[in-house]
Amino acid sequence: MTIYVGNLSFQATEDDLREVFAEYGEVSRISLPTDRETGRKRGFAFVEMKDESKEDLAISELDGAEWLGRELKVNKAKPREDSRGSGGGKSLSNSPY
DNA sequence: CCTGAGCGG
């Protein structure tokens, strides 16, 4: 599960995000995308944890909270794409439906 | 990189 973190301060870094999310669980992965042309931070990030239950807790607690002067917008991120592409199909993951 | 859109490779 990946967490989408929006409305971030441009001064925020991956390490800062890791510390903040580490309060709710061990951070497995951090992603801080930037614009491919200028390299400027777009003000959002992606955080992944080892325990999904901790992610849900972090989302509910950090969403709407103020951080570095900006109100955090935390939500579950869209899955970028399945890593499989060869002949394959969609993942057999259990859908929410 | 000096910026404000919310979803990346």
UniProtKB/TrEMBL annotation:
<feature type="compositionally biased region" description="Basic and acidic residues">
    <location>
        <begin position="73"/>
        <end position="84"/>
    </location>
</feature>
<feature type="domain" description="RRM">
    <location>
        <begin position="1"/>
        <end position="79"/>
    </location>
</feature>
<dbReference type="GO" id="GO:0003723">
    <property type="term" value="F:RNA binding"/>
</dbReference>
<dbReference type="InterPro" id="IPR052462">
    <property type="entry name" value="SLIRP/GR-RBP-like"/>
</dbReference>
<dbReference type="InterPro" id="IPR012677">
    <property type="entry name" value="Nucleotide-bd_a/b_plait_sf"/>
</dbReference>
<keyword id="KW-0694">RNA-binding</keyword>
<feature type="region of interest" description="Disordered">
    <location>
        <begin position="73"/>
        <end position="97"/>
    </location>
</feature>
<protein>
    <submittedName>
        <fullName>RNA-binding protein</fullName>
    </submittedName>
</protein>
<dbReference type="InterPro" id="IPR000504">
    <property type="entry name" value="RRM_dom"/>
</dbReference>
<dbReference type="InterPro" id="IPR035979">
    <property type="entry name" value="RBD_domain_sf"/>
</dbReference>
<dbReference type="Pfam" id="PF00076">
    <property type="entry name" value="RRM_1"/>
</dbReference>
